[in-house]
């Protein structure tokens, strides 16, 4: 993400051309308006110069639905890497990363116990945006629970990270009621105070509603983060089929009306209308599909908008916009110099951001 705003970009172009700068884009006139409009034109040129600019890379996750084969691709995509598609179990926990709050969790604390959002955990603060903090107090129990929708007799895997700012134990309960222990009760201990430890448990659901709960009854604080509960199966890579391959191999089965078309997806294909399809058609709604894509560049509109172009390459935008303004003004020397500057920066961008070294190893 760059640091120059839309207004900054425009004024830099105007300064290079010895024109009057702006205090607000809404007041632009004549060549000022041309400079303003040339910024987005330059951003589009840069975005279209390469398919896989790292600063336009994004990740996407799509939950599946039983019986639904096709899903929309992101509206802002320009290129999708169909070799990156993975199928993995859907996380049943809502807000298990505590990025900005602890919503979706029920506070069942008693006495002086309390649960709260903490914006920075003790170790390591740079890697986490927030944690669920349980504080028992001098005479209470801190309890945070969440109800999950499960399938009876299915096996599930739960994992989370925990740390103790001052030492102690954490109780983790799985049951059929809030803080219930009908399925299991577990004690997590960290000997090294301040260490961030991941733990994992498996359980078999006894019904369609299962509760997980964290409980702290010692007069200390406990931080919990990255809570995940999924059906117990391993993620796998999906094989890409071209649309012609899909038509020749699996379309007849996937388009029939019987339940034999349903199953755990093995393949992904691109449709003709900006969607992706899964084959076999998902047989349940507990899968998640993850993949990588490259988005279109963000168009700037307000004075304070910033671009996707990294800060050290922002001058490419200025040079390209200056080129367009100079062409309109029939200032060919400035236009040629601006184009040469733009091409030089783009070559540097490709060298640093796109070109990859090939590594060889002895066999």
- Order of SSEs: HHEEEEEEEEEEEEEEEEHHEEEEEHH
Estimated share of beta-strand residues: 25-35%
Give the N-terminus to C-terminus distance in angstroms. Answer: 41 Å
Shape: flat
Mean pLDDT equals 91
| Structure summary, number of beta strands | 21
Radius of gyration: 27 Å
Please name the CATH architecture of the domain at 106-231: Sandwich
Name the structural class: alpha+beta
* CATH domain class name of the domain at 106-231: Mainly Beta
CATH fold topology of the domain at 106-231: Jelly Rolls
Distinct helical segment count: 6
Largest sheet: 6 strands, antiparallel
Helix content: 10-25%
CATH superfamily of the domain at 106-231: Galactose-binding domain-like
Summarize the structure.
With 363 residues, the protein is an alpha+beta fold. 22% of the residues lie in helices and 34% in strands.
Write up this protein.
The two termini are about 40 Å apart. Mean pLDDT is about 90; it is low at about 120-125. Helices cover about 20% and strands about 35% of the residues. Helix 1 (about 5-15) packs across helix 2, helix 2 packs across helix 5 and helix 5 (about 315-330) runs antiparallel to helix 6. Strands 4, 5, 8, 10, 11 and 13 form a 6-stranded antiparallel sheet that branches. The chain has a 5-stranded antiparallel sheet with strand order 6-7-14-9-12, with no helix packed on it. The protein has helices at about 5-15, 30-50, 245-250, 250-255, 315-330, 330-355, and strands spanning about 55-65, 70, 75-90, 105, 110, 115-120, 130-135, 140-150, 155-165, 170-175, 185-190, 195-205, 210-215, 220-230, 235, 240, 260-265, 265-270, 275-280, 280, 285-295. It is an alpha+beta fold and about 375 residues long. Among the domains are: about 5-50 and about 295-355; about 105-230, Jelly Rolls. The protein has 6 helices and 21 strands.
């Amino acid at each position: 993400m760059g640091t120059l705003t839309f207004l900054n970009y425009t004024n830099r172009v105007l300064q290079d051309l010895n024109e009057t700068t702006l205090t607000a884009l809404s007041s632009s006139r004549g060549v000022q308006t041309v400079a303003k409009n040339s910024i987005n034109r330059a951003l589009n040129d840069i975005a279209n110069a390469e398919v896989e600019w790292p600063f336009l890379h994004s990740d996407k996750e799509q939950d599946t639905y039983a019986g639904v084969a096709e899903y929309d691709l992101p509206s802002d995509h320009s290129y999708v890497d169909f070799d990156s598609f993975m199928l993995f179990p859907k996380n049943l926990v809502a807000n298990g990363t505590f990025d900005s709050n602890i919503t979706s969790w029920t506070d069942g604390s008693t006495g002086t116990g309390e649960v709260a959002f903490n914006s920075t955990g003790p170790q390591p603060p740079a890697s986490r945006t927030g944690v669920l903090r349980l504080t028992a107090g001098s005479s209470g129990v801190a309890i945070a629970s969440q109800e999950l929708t499960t399938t009876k007799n299915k096996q599930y895997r739960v994992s989370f990270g925990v740390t103790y700012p001052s030492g102690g134990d954490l109780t983790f309960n799985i049951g059929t009621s809030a803080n219930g222990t009908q399925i299991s009760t577990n004690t997590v201990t960290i000997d090294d105070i301040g260490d961030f430890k991941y733990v994992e448990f498996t359980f078999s659901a006894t019904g369609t509603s299962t509760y997980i709960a964290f409980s702290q009854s010692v007069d200390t604080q406990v931080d919990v983060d990255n809570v995940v509960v999924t059906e117990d199966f391993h993620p796998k890579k999906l094989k890409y089929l071209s649309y012609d391959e899909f038509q020749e191999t699996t379309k007849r089965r996937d388009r029939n009306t019987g339940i034999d078309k349903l199953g755990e997806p093995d393949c992904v294909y691109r449709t003709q209308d900006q969607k992706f399809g899964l084959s076999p058609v998902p047989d349940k709604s507990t899968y998640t599909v993850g993949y990588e894509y490259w988005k279109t560049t963000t168009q700037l509109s307000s004075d304070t908008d910033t671009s996707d172009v990294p800060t050290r390459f922002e001058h490419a935008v200025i040079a390209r916009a200056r080129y367009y303004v100079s062409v309109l003004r029939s200032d060919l020397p400035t236009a040629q110099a601006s184009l040469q500057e733009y091409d030089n920066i783009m070559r540097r961008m490709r060298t640093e951001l796109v070109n990859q070294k090939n590594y060889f190893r002895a066999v």
